[in-house]
DNA sequence: TTAAAGTCAATATT
DNA sequence: AATATTGACTTTAA
């Protein structure tokens, strides 16, 4: 994503590109606050706030060192190597022997054989990436469009050196100066210490290998319509609260039965890893993967040798949810055992498989769900999670993971009563802007610095620490800046009616197909897949936001009246012209799709 | 302990 | 009503 994102940045994609990271790194130049010469800051921030934050004034040595350390973060990796990998991935398509069980896949998908790019082979679905040579034989999962078996492809492994799953993720270890530099240097030219490195090789090799898939008429819809008809049977809310009763979905029953019978009759499926439907279960006990995997084979660690294209999986999931009017909350809670917010985030910013840790399980569940026949998928939604687990062949979702123990302090007099809700802190505008500005310069401020920041912003140290932690994490995984996220794509398609009706034009279908195509981690993708945190992205981001940041900082500084800063102030004050900034960030109304979104976004901030 | 990863779940936006 | 955002837990690794 990262790399492709960068590469794809187009003229009008600018505003889009900033969308996500904006939250953390951008300041809204149009904000009245900012335009007000920062008067507001003076009111909320202690005087000499920045001074204090500045390493120099405060703890010269300590801060300096910390700043330095931050700068020394591990350099990121092997972007270059990855770039070269791309080409190979294409040519080294795995001959689909491993795809023998594709039939299973066929139950829900059908790879377009005549695709020029993928003439004939489902191999295209396989990842050229070879991370681990030790592969298990019996993985029928390979049949999934979202799973790519990692094979040792003709030398591709040579390129994989730095792309193992555990490739160090590095934050943009910018050689940012400490905040002091921020205060003492000209923001225009050096807002960001890191000078943008030349465009990565990725940037120029956008070779989006897109494989189109057609949704097979699992639901009686002809391939042509691709099952995009909004009229499809959709998920229906249980009448009352006590959902999850099997009986709750009578309309689905028959469908389920049909599906089950067909499924059962499908040889590949029975022998597949793919979970079998509930009833099928009975008639045909889920086969156990007797092999090496000690415990639950179905939930086996397919991570080592199979690669799930999370991005496409999410695209698919998004489509399914939309198409069947399944609320995220329902899907998230019943199928994934996760919260709606988590699902939303996952769908929008799927991390590449190789960078997932325990989070893989969630994606596995998504995968297992889509792997089911339509009827089963829908039926499962009305099942209890336990059943879902069984049906999907998964071990119980990772223990209700972070179930908040809500041991939140109950209000004084309240004893057994419902626990008081956890109040949620919301940064004030100033707090947020300041934190973002600082983050832009120093993603990893020292402890002392954080303490200082906390004091000045009247926040807890932990809060400040959390901010940086979240900011680092979120800026890193940044979604595809240039292209709409899977979910957004879905929404867009619906908006345009491409999906709503079954009688699309050839072009529409084309679009749809493409939209759901499986992109192979090729040139552009490999970068992110293997090296999620590409510098390019960050740099680009910086470039996009530099001026804004500078502006804001100026504002902050402007409010400052500390001794050490005078010089800094002087240098910094000359700020970029607001007009330009706005033009740069807010303009682009022309982009009908989300130009407005961007504007809104900015305005909101 | 600290940091990162994975989420929760309140609440902001659409 | 549904989806997106996001500060802060909880769980894992180091």
Folded structure, characterized:
- By secondary structure, this protein is an all-alpha fold.
- Among the domains are: 2-72 and 441-483 and 529-604, no CATH class; 213-392, lambda repressor-like DNA-binding domains (434 Repressor (Amino-terminal Domain)).
- The protein is 48% helix and 3% strand.
- The strands form 3 sheets. A two-stranded antiparallel sheet has the order 1-4.
- Helix 23 crosses helix 24.
- It is globular and about 80 Å long.
- The chain binds a DNA duplex (14 and 14 nucleotides) through residues 23, 169, 327-329, 338-348, 351, 356-359, 362, 398, 401-405, 421-427, 462-463, 465-467, 469-470, 472-474, 487, 491, 600, 604.
Task: Give the beta-strand count.
Answer: 6
* Strand proportion: under 5%
Mean pLDDT: 49
Residue stretches low in confidence (pLDDT < 50, at least 5 long) are 1-44, 54-143, 150-231, 240-301, 406-416, 479-483, 498-605
Gyration radius, in Å: 26 Å
User: Could you say which structural class the secondary elements and strand pairing correspond to?
Assistant: mainly alpha
Spatial shape: globular
Spatial order of strands in the largest sheet: 1-4
| Quaternary organization | single chain
In percent, how helical is the residue content?
40-55%
Report the major sheet: 2 strands, antiparallel
C-alpha termini separation? 25 Å
How many helices in DSSP terms? 31
Main location: nucleus
Organism: Caenorhabditis elegans
DNA-binding region: 420-479
Domain Homeobox: 418-478
């Amino acid at each position: 994503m990262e790399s492709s994102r960068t590469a794809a940045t187009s003229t009008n994609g600018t505003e889009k590109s900033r969308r996500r990271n904006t939250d953390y790194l951008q300041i809204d130049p149009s904000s009245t606050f900012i335009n007000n010469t920062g008067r507001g800051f003076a009111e909320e921030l202690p005087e000499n706030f920045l001074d204090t934050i500045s390493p120099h004034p405060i703890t010269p040595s300590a801060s300096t060192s910390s700043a330095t350390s931050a700068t020394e973060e591990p350099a990121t990796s092997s972007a270059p190597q990855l770039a070269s990998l791309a080409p190979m991935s294409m040519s080294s398509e795995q001959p689909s022997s491993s795809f023998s069980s594709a039939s299973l896949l066929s139950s829900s998908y059908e790879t377009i054989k005549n695709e020029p790019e993928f003439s004939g082979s489902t191999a295209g679905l396989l990842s050229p990436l070879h991370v681990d040579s030790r592969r298990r034989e019996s993985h029928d999962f390979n049949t999934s469009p979202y799973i790519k078996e990692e094979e040792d492809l003709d030398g591709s492994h040579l390129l994989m050196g730095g792309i193992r799953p555990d490739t160090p993720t590095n934050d943009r270890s910018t050689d940012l100066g400490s905040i002091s530099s921020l205060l003492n240097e000209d923001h225009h030219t050096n807002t960001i210490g890191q000078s943008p490195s030349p465009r990565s090789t990725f940037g120029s090799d956008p070779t989006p290998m897109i494989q189109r898939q057609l949704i097979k008429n699992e639901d009686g819809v002809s391939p042509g319509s691709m099952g995009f008809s909004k009229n499809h049977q959709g998920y229906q809310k249980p009448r009352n609260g006590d959902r999850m009763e099997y009986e709750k979905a009578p309309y689905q029953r028959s469908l389920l039965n049909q599906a089950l019978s067909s499924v059962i009759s499908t040889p590949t499926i029975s022998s597949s890893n793919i979970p079998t439907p509930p009833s099928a279960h009975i008639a045909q006990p889920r086969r156990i993967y007797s092999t090496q995997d000690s415990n639950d084979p179905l939930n086996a660690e397919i991570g080592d040798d199979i690669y799930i294209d999370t991005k496409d999986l999410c695209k698919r999931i998004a489509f399914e949810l939309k198409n069947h009017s399944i609320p995220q909350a329902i899907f998230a809670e019943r199928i994934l055992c996760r919260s709606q917010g988590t699902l939303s985030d996952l769908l929008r910013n799927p991390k590449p498989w190789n960078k997932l840790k325990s989070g893989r399980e969630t994606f596995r569940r998504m995968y297992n769900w889509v792997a089911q026949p339509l009827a089963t998928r829908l039926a499962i939604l009305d099942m209890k999670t336990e059943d879902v687990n069984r049906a999907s062949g998964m071990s119980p979702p990772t223990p209700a993971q972070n179930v908040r123990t809500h041991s939140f302090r109950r209000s004084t007099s309240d004893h057994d009563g419902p626990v008081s809700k956890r109040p949620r802190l919301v940064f004030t505008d100033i707090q947020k802007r300041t934190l973002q500005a600082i983050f832009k310069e120093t993603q990893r401020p020292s402890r002392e610095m954080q303490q200082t920041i906390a004091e000045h912003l009247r926040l807890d140290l932990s809060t400040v620490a959390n901010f940086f932690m979240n900011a680092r994490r979120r800026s890193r995984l940044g979604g595809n800046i240039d292209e709409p996220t899977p979910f957004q794509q879905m929404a867009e398609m619906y908006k345009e009616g491409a999906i709503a009706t079954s009688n699309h034009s050839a072009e529409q279908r084309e679009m749809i197909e493409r939209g759901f195509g499986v992109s192979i981690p090729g040139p552009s993708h490999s970068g992110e897949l293997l090296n999620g945190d590409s510098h390019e992205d960050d740099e680009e981001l910086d470039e996009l936001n530099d001026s804004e940041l500078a502006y804001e900082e100026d504002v902050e500084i402007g409010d400052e009246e500390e001794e050490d800063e005078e010089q800094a102030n002087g240098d910094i004050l000359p700020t970029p012209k607001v007009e330009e900034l706005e033009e740069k960030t807010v303009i682009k109304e022309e982009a009908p799709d989300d130009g407005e979104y961007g504007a809104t976004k900015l305005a909101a901030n």
